[in-house]
Amino acid sequence: MILSSLRLRNFPEDDKDKFPWTLPLIQNLEELVFEKNISFFVGENGSGKSTILEAIAAYTEVPLAGSFRLEDDTSLAAANTLADYLSLRYEDKTHHGFFVRSEDFIGFARNIKQQIKILDDEIAEVKADANGRNVDLTVETIEEEKQNYIQRYSRDLEAMSHGEGFLKFFMSRITAKGLYLIDEPEAALSPNRQLSLLSLIMDKVKRNGSHFIIATHSPIFMAVPDSEVFYFADGTVSKVDYKETEHYRLTKSILEDPTVVMKNL
């Protein structure tokens, strides 16, 4: 694993009436101990799981896979604040990895497309300014850089379906041993694509010992073997079997008898 534990060092009394300190979870936060290479943060919307995941990203300074640097993304201001009060212990410290939310992918795809366009324009400019000089080596160097982008990400991730592009992103970016923080990947993935991503994740854990911390509502993700589920509920967090989560119980009851569930709505 990369991380072994997380805890809150202290509490800013002067700011206790401000977010994120007003979250019951933060007020009650005890040490989280990571024992598996695949850890799931599970809970209702507003339970604090994404806030903790974002704060881990801010503390560890892993890259944000989107259109902003993590420290410049205003939506992560609370996470940056919380990160200053966290204490994380490492099993094996690394600078590899990333933090990604489903909504960040659009910005990432546009950045890749723009970078390819910049390189195309640069090639055209070099050729236009050649004035009879041999610029083949310069063009070849720029073209090689462009082809590396295309081979890794495709020419236009936006042209793919959101799910196809999102999965392509993961296949391209989950490489070396690292800490990978992923917030609700199921938002962009069909059940089959979720299984494809899980296959990739389990392979990387087996091959290089990467650590994945994933905030999710998907019972498909939670069911992965040899993982751990941190359940965020009622202002606390505890480890549970995935079958103890409301997500599993509700999904199971709907699949077994949707008529009964719908009548109770």
Question: Quick summary of this structure?
Answer:
Helices cover 45% and strands 17% of the residues. With 265 residues, the protein is α/β, with parallel strands linked by helices. The chain has a single domain (3-106, 177-263), classed as Rossmann fold, CATH 3.40.50.
Q: What order do the helices and strands come in, and which of them pair?
A:
Layout: E1 3-8, H1 24-28, E2 32-33, E3 38-43, H2 49-60, H3 77-83, E4 86-90, E5 97-101, H4 104-128, H5 136-153, H6 162-173, E6 179-183, H7 191-208, E7 211-215, H8 219-222, E8 228-233, E9 236-240, H9 246-256, H10 258-263
Parallel strand pairs: 3-7, 3-8, 5-6, 6-7
Antiparallel strand pairs: 1-2, 1-4, 8-9
Reported by name, the CATH topology is Rossmann fold
Helicity range: 40-55%
Structural class: alpha/beta
Shape: globular
CATH architecture label: 3-Layer(aba) Sandwich
Number of individual domains: 1
Mean pLDDT across every amino acid position: 83
Strand order of the largest sheet: 5-6-7-3-8-9
CATH class: Alpha Beta
Order of helices and strands: EHEEHHEEHHHEHEHEEHH
Q: Spans with pLDDT under 50 lasting ≥5 residues?
A: 157-161
Count up the helices. 10
Distance from N terminus to C terminus (CA atoms, Å) equals 42 Å
Could you tell me the strand content as a percent range?
A: 15-25%
The beta-strand count equals 9
Supply Rg: 22 Å
